[in-house]
Amino acid sequence: MKENNSFFELDCSSYEDSDSLLQLAISLSATIKKPCRIFNISKEREKSGLITQHLLAIQALAQLTKGKLEGDELYSKEIKFWPGQDYQEMVSVKIETAISIPLILQSLILPAFFASKPIKISFDGGATDTFFAPTIDYFRYVFLKILEKMTTKVELNILKRGYWPQGKAKVEVTTYPSKFKALNLVEKGQFLEILAISGASDILKDKKVAERQLAGTREVLGKLNLKTEERVEYYQTQGPGSQIFLMAKFENTFLGTDEVGKLGKRSEDLGKETALELLKEQKNEACLDSYLADQILPYLALANNRSQVTVSKITNHCQNKMRLIEKFLNGKFEINNNLISWNPN
Predict the structure, then answer these.
(1) Which residues are catalytically annotated?
(2) Where in the chain is the domain with CATH 3.30.110?
(3) Distances from the Cα of 159 to the Cαs of 128, 139, 171, 235, in angstroms?
(4) Is CB count within 10 Å lower at the N or C end of the chain?
């Protein structure tokens, strides 16, 4: 990434994980109001160029900031984005497929905080819970809870759940103007309780899918006598699907794991695997899991002072995001074992 002729430039061929970096770059561009040019998009894939997920995200960002896009077509290998200086107070995102709503939200809410008025974002279609993405429960009970330590509360209303491959979810989100406070999370504090939400389509109610997923978690967590709040939920959805979310609440932080039901996989096994993953995160002394570490980075860099957090794992993907953010913003990330620090210039 470099600044050239008033554009920040990102050559995606320089990164193995360029798809999510593309979305972050556009989100940062919208936030700090600097035009961005991105090229060689997903060059390593057999069918290179913009995929639907990222196309919809950047189009929604252009709508939010009343900006201008060039090259915003499916499989386009280059895009240019000029963010507007104003904000659209009502943003509507129409999704025809089962694309992840939380992944698009990750890009939209960052610049939305910088608007002078509340921003309402509505999703018509898409999936609340799908593969290779955080579930909507992880998004609201882990990501947003950590974010509340830095900024104003985000209101999230799930009107209708949607699973892969049908989608058809409906979600509304409202953000409020805010500046980011520094975040210092280095010690989890005392364990308080576990929240377990097991949900499924109402057409799976007779098979007790949600109850069986919870039974799998109890097989693992029940032996430890941990204080646990359990919720069984069934929803009217376009097609069958299920999800399970577990959150361990501590004095200072929240750790979460989630899974989406897979055809041919026993519900009990899904619950068991999710619980084992939570225990793995819980045994680590870090305050943030490896997925949340990726998601919180731009907020650390936009805070009003030095921030530091401990994370369970610093992936290559996480480090690539750090380098990208450093190109947009004045400051530098430092890594010391599992401690990530942001030092503003």
Answers:
(1) 317
(2) 1-86, 180-187+285-345
(3) 10, 16, 5, 10
(4) C
